[in-house]
UniProtKB/TrEMBL annotation:
An annotated Gene Ontology molecular function: homoserine O-succinyltransferase activity
Active site: C142, H235, E237
UniProt KW Cell inner membrane keyword: no
Pathway field: Amino-acid biosynthesis; L-methionine biosynthesis via de novo pathway; O-acetyl-L-homoserine from L-homoserine: step 1/1
Originating organism: Geofilum rubicundum JCM 15548
rRNA-binding keyword on record: no
Function as written in the Swiss-Prot or TrEMBL entry: Transfers an acetyl group from acetyl-CoA to L-homoserine, forming acetyl-L-homoserine.
EC number annotated for this UniProt entry: 2.3.1.31
InterPro entries xrefs: Class_I_gatase-like, HST_MetA, MetA_family
Protein name (database record): Homoserine O-acetyltransferase
Amino acid sequence: MPVNIPDTLPAKALLEAENVFVMGESRAISQDIRPLRILILNLMPLKIVTESHLLRVLSNSPLQVEVELLMTSMHSHRNTPEEHLVAFYNTFKEVKDRYFDGLIITGAPIELLDFEQVTYWSELCEIMEWSKTHVTSTFHICWGAQAGMYYHFGIKKYELSKKVFGVFEHNVLIPTEPLLRGFDDRFFAPHSRYTEVRVPEINKHSGLILLSESVEAGAFLAVSEDRRQIFVTGHPEYDQNTLGEEYWRDVNKGMEIGVPDNYYPDNNPENPPTVTWRSHAHLLYSNWLNYYVYQSTPYTLGEL
């Protein structure tokens, strides 16, 4: 089954060209089933790119998924055309009286700021609080995961001496967890961040369960005890060239940045990168949709 998106969203043509199953809203309304309603709070500056990343991994499911996009109102969105924001995005004020099967909170390139210094922190806190009563399951990514663990459980983030940047191997800690169903014992995922949450602090918190970690990249995947909050500290949704684009962007700015680890063959940025994480990325999102959203959400939204 497809992911259901607006007919004119730019990502639609891109995904169709990749043979990804997407369905325009005009066709979807003719099908007599209830799709899963997924809200994406997109905090990334390049919103159109992030939309494509997430729609790609959400599409690999037998479930019909209806996606809506959300942006903060307390922040200037300079890197996305205004007409795109007007056409496809809502603010929290416009959705706060509604219910959703799932919510995705993306990362944001602001991890060196204290949470309280972020311009939209109060709005994000309001959204995360609202999610506890209006969303069946929330999936937090990278900085969004750090923000979620801090808000819901008081888990602090710490600045790293060196950016975690590249593709790293991870271990499955609880193979019986439905979110990891079908995973290999070891798998790869991209990371791109300057801060971390620490494994001992997650492990000692009774409300959190650590599902996967990496020797090099640290804590990767954790869930709340009730499974309604999912926290992923990396970027499994990244496509083949995303880390490379970040690398060359920083190089061209004259920033001191190392070549992404385990990304380019022979560690040579002139070589095309090889994707080693795609299958597990799709599996992670499809498991979330199936076991934590579809199997848990009420047929009539609002009965959470």
